[in-house]
Amino acid sequence: MKKPSLPVQIIMGLILGILWALLSSSMGWSDFTIDWIAPFGTIFINLLKLIAIPLVLFSIIAGIGNLSDTATLGRMGVKTLALYIGSTILAAAMGMFIANTFNPGKQASEEQLKINRLAYELWVNDSEGVEYFDDVRLLNDPNMASYLTDAQSALAEQQSNEELNAKMSVLKNKKETGPLQFFVDMVPSNIFLSFNDSLMLQVIFFAIFFGIVMVMLPNAQMQPVAAVINGFSDIFIKMVDVVMKGAPFFVFALLAGKLAEMAGDEPGRLVEIFKALGAYTGYTILGLLIMILLLYPAVIAFLVHRKTNMGYWKSWGYFMRGIRPAQLLAFSTSSTAATLPVTMDCVRDNLGVDEEIGSFVLPVGATINMDGTALYQTVAVIFMAQFHMIDLSLGQQATIILMATLGSIGAASVPSAGMIMLIPILESVGLNPAWIAIIFPVDRIIDMVRTVLNLTGDASVSTIIALSEDKFKVVDQEEL
Ligand code: ASP
User: What ranges do the domains of the chain cover?
Assistant: First the structure.
């Protein structure tokens, strides 16, 4: 029998991981799973991260070295940023559409909603500088007195949530920043510190600077340097292939470990978590899937067909099949940064996007373009407002779209980063940041799916740019 292809093997690893987690928690083996299986998942993520920084460094320098002129680079940079910002706004708008169509926050019992509303009003009264969103005042309604004690304890519980307070203090410790801080942070003062701390944008800046100066020097003088850099780039590209050989097992270990951690020794706990937040989780995932399976692939299918005459369906399949390994990995790791080496591999080898484009567009995207995160943040904020009986006007929702766009750019490409960025978003629009405690329990699952969209957005933008620059070549996907 023919050995199944790598993506099929990874899917098998994924399913086995879920089955193992269910079995291990119902048999009381969670500690065994966490001690003896989960560490292989961590090793896998470490291996991918180990490759990511040098791979980005050498492949950007090698890519720029091959560019005929630096004007191309400028044009590509402008297109990349425009598409990244445009696609993030689109995703956030999709989140707003989903939240307003399905109203996940209004599906709780009336009693629960009233308690939540009272808790919100108590919080506004206690907080300096925060104003009401509307004219409703349940606190003044004598019929509500019976709910007041519940509301007070709900508020106290939210505010004292330890996990939340830990996250808030991490944010508070960050220095106050001015409007140009983003650009200041991009320019490293010591490149070794940037490597040390995996500061991707600084490494990208350094690589572009290095590459441009290489192009400015005489070709003959630079030849040996270029040969060495191309060689290094090839080594790191090959490393991705080698690590990916173990992906099916590693993915099994990752999922088994994560789910065992969530479920402990009672599998029923997972079901309970989802029942309470089912509508919110389900509709957020629905919005993410619409973008992952329909919207982006449809745009790419249209453009690929126009260029190659492949047919719409075939082009759709070509794109989806090409990036599947990276999508599966994003799902398993919840980190676009860890998935980056594989994304670069898939976009180059399976989609036929030129190395020059992928090596530049994808690392930038992994750092700043998070469409899944923006969509999720918009749904989450509107859900939480609905859950506290706050009706947001269109203008207020537009502000949330803007804030989610910025919040997603600021989020790191690691698990849960998008949720932490909800704190400043809620604060900036005058809602209670402690509300994120409500969605903690289901965040990991949503994180897995939103990370898939984050990566799909990056892959789509790099394909669009390659098509527009005539740097796209259909490859044979026979092996996939
Ligand atoms: N985990 C996401 C990523 O790495 C970020 C997020 O938490 O939304 O892309």
Answer: 11-468
Between 21-30, 166-175, 191-200, 363-372, the lowest mean confidence (pLDDT) is in 166-175
Mean of the per-residue pLDDT values of the chain: 89
Closest CA to 465 of 76, 16, 104, 51: 76
CA-nearest residue, atom 8 of ligand 1: 418
Model pTM? 0.89
The best mutation among 413, 452, 453 to test binding of ligand 1, ranked by most ligand atoms within 8 Å of the C-beta, falls on 413
First-to-last CA distance in the chain?
16
- Locate all alpha helices (DSSP H) within 309-370, ordered by sequence: 312-333, 336-345, 355-368
CA nearest to 238, candidates 330, 345, 324:
345
Beta carbons of 334 and 415 less than 8 angstroms apart: yes
Helix axes 371-387, 436-468, angle to 10 degrees: 150
Taking only the tens place, the pLDDT of each residue in 267-319 is 776 666 666 688 999 999 999 999 999 999 999 999 999 999 999 999 999 99
For residue 419, give both structure tokens: 């949720």
Q: What is the Å distance from ligand 1's center to 432 Cα?
A: 22
Nearest to 59 by CA among 318, 300, 347: 347
* Each residue's pLDDT tens digit, 160-189: 777 777 777 766 666 567 778 888 988 999
Q: What is the pLDDT of residue 170?
A: 65
Measured CA to CA, the distance from residue 366 to residue 374 in angstroms comes to 14
pLDDT for position 175: 54
Q: Which residues line ligand 1 (CB under 6 A)?
A: 334-336, 370, 373, 411, 413-418, 447, 450-451, 454
Mutation choice for ligand 1 from 373, 408, 416, 444, CB with most ligand atoms inside 8 A: 373
Cβ(154)–Cβ(116) below 8 Å: yes
- HSE-CB for 408 with a 13 A CA cutoff: 33
CATH 1.10.3860.10 for domain 11-468, yes or no, is yes
Contact present, 4 and 12 (Cβ < 8 Å) = yes
Residue 297 tokens read as: 């692939």
